[in-house]
């Protein structure tokens, strides 16, 4: 006897697989088009002589390397500050907090992700920056022998360190949400077995939860890094334009996204090509970060506690 429900199910599976394939191909096509646009528009700046470039950059790499440095420093600060807090909050929500409290904290974390980046930028420029000034003065006074805090300290607080703090708040919801979902998926049998053997709650987390979630935590961190690398408006509002410096508490430094946001509307000709070439560099950096993250995840996946 002909089974209509089975035939409809097979037809639905075929339609779904076709749609999934088309979606995957579409994503690759869009990515390829973006890459082709960036490369095509960047060629004039990449091949131009020093006398053809706008400004006093010397050559393109003299111009873009300080921007790369500022981008990487701001993103590194954001990850250093956000990662331990995000993992701790996710662990508290998933394994320690009462159900009602965990739901409330989870709601607040999700709400942070919904705040527009321009609001974060305005907060960093108008509120956080001035609040950080006394800290910067203290760092210069007592830790000024370290090049990172050598000063002079900014009087406005609009520094690369302030930008990093703002970015850490922005990437916190992303890392926390992903880690929370991964921690919740830890096999209960593993947790119960550790507790049955006499392990404390923290020992159970170290033996069962963290090994299972290792690859997911790395993925969450790299996703947060991608957000920090590409953030534009918040960093643009916080930073004071200036040349690259290792001094984290003084004026100066700029990132690739903020440089593009500040100058692209009025740019034309060679200047426009320079900015698009800077965008190409950021595209390559982001792609490299994602590839490294995928390699790390695949390398450690077989050692997951879920096996």
Automatic annotation (TrEMBL):
The record describes the protein's role as: Part of the binding-protein-dependent transport system for phosphate; probably responsible for the translocation of the substrate across the membrane.
Single biological process term from Gene Ontology:
phosphate ion transport
Q: What is its main location?
A: membrane
Q: Which family does it belong to?
A: Belongs to the binding-protein-dependent transport system permease family. CysTW subfamily.
Membrane-spanning ranges = 20-40, 60-93, 105-126, 160-179, 209-229, 275-297
Tell me the ranges covered by the ABC transmembrane type-1 domain, including all copies: 68-293
Q: Where in the cell is it found?
A: Cell membrane
InterPro entries cross-referenced by the UniProt entry: MetI-like, MetI-like_sf, Phosphate_PstC, Phosphate_Transport_Permease
**Does this UniProt record's set of keywords contain Transmembrane?**
yes
Protein's recorded name = Phosphate transport system permease protein
One MF annotation (Gene Ontology) recorded for this entry: phosphate transmembrane transporter activity
Q: Name one Pfam family in it.
A: BPD_transp_1
Keyword annotations: Cell membrane, Membrane, Phosphate transport, Transmembrane, Transmembrane helix, Transport
